[in-house]
Amino acid sequence: MGGLTNAEIAAALADWNSGDLSSFLVEISAAIFAKPDDRGEGDLIDKILDKTGMKGTGKWTVQQAADLSVAAPTIEASLDARFLSGIKEERVAAAAFFEARGVAAPAPARGVDKAALVARVRSALYASKICSYAQGMNIIRAKSEAMGWDIDLGALARIWKGGCIIRAAFLDDIRAAYARDPSLPSLLIDPMFGDALAARAGDWRAVVSDAVLAGVAVPGMTASLSYFDTYRRARLPANLVQAQRDFFGSHTYERVDGQEGWFHTLWSAGNSADSITTSGYTK
After folding, report:
1. Are 173 and 196 a contacting pair, CB within 8 Å?
2. Which CATH number is 6-231's, of 1.10.1040.10, 1.10.10.10, 1.20.1070.10, 2.30.40.10?
3. How open is the CA angle 201-202-206, to the nearest 5 degrees?
4. pLDDT tens digit string along 227-251?
5. Where are the domains of the chain?
6. Residue 84 CB neighbour total at 10 angstroms
């Protein structure tokens, strides 16, 4: 999208690793983009097959989230991206199929201000990271409550800081958030993280929008932004889904106008007795 070279990406990541995005994964990513191919010409990253392996950790996490009814779209998006990477031959064929129909492969845009783009992506990554960690913490909290484990989420962040693949300076901020409010329902509404999301929202939207227009998939950032936009809405279009459920399956619905209980409507046109109150109905 921005036409950055591997060396420019490595430099950007190294710079990020000296600030609020400092982490093990950013650190090693900088080293990876800077590594030359010792078996041929050019950089090693360009010679590695774009087909990701997995050991099952992501799948187990998503399964737990579903079992606990906890939204984890960023984690799910990362897992789906791995699944899609695994169908390499099918993707190669699909690329040729759509290029023959005028859907060109993504290409660097002309006249891009690389420094400005790097700054926007840095903001978008930080905001997306907040959402990802919020989802993970919510899964752990829900499992802890279900099993009676009484996990201290702040202490957990401290343990991770001690050494694992998600080791990051960011974990200090998570620990501080739970120290301020041990019953915090989501990292998104911690004052510090809330301010960070608000300050970065514009860059975040710009990066996702530019990527979509350029045909570049950014599943993690897109999922995180949708999560943020859904979480901060006082009312969602889920009322339509619930109405549909009542229409085709008589699943009933609740009302927002002060009328208590569960309701079922006979949705057929022309039926005058179209609403049945089912107060006391157990879902």
Report:
1. no
2. 1.10.1040.10
3. 115
4. 999 999 999 999 999 999 999 999 9
5. 6-231, 238-277
6. 14
